[in-house]
Amino acid sequence: MTSKKGVKVYSAPMCSSCEKAKVFLKENNISFKEIDVSKDKKAAMEVVNKTGQMSIPIIYVDGKYLVGFDKSALKSALELQ
User: Fold this and answer.
1) Contact predicate 42/54, CB 8 Å
2) Which of 15, 21, 41, 65 could bond 69 through an S-S bridge, CB–CB 3.0 to 4.6 Å?
């Protein structure tokens, strides 16, 4: 998997949009760090403070936070075609 950009996925179990985002990244050979906000409360508060959002997934790509799974926005942030 490629890791040309720092990618993190803030997610939780039972989140279908989170799962779709992770599958998309895997299908495109993008390595990422998964952060389970249901277990890591510090990370959850950190991402809420940075984004002002409490919804998931929140995907961090090279300094930018994307809220929700928006395939076109994620492709653009990752410079995929």
Assistant:
1) no
2) 21
CA separation, residue 38 to residues 10, 15, 45 (Å)? 10, 11, 11
Question: Which CATH class, in words, describes the domain spanning 7-77?
Answer: alpha beta
Per domain, the residue ranges of the chain are 7-77
The pTM assigned to this predicted structure is 0.89
Q: Which residue is associated with the tokens 């050979």?
A: 29
Report how far residue 17's alpha carbon sits from residue 3's, in angstroms, rounded to the nearest whole number: 22
pLDDT of the residue at 5 = 64
Give the C-alpha separation, 68 to 11, whole Å.
Answer: 10
User: Residue 8 in contact with residue 35, Cβ under 8 Å?
Assistant: yes
Q: What does the pLDDT look like over 33-53, one tens digit per residue?
A: 999 999 999 999 999 999 999
Retrieve residue 21's tokens.
């985002």
Judged by DSSP in three states, 80 sits in coil
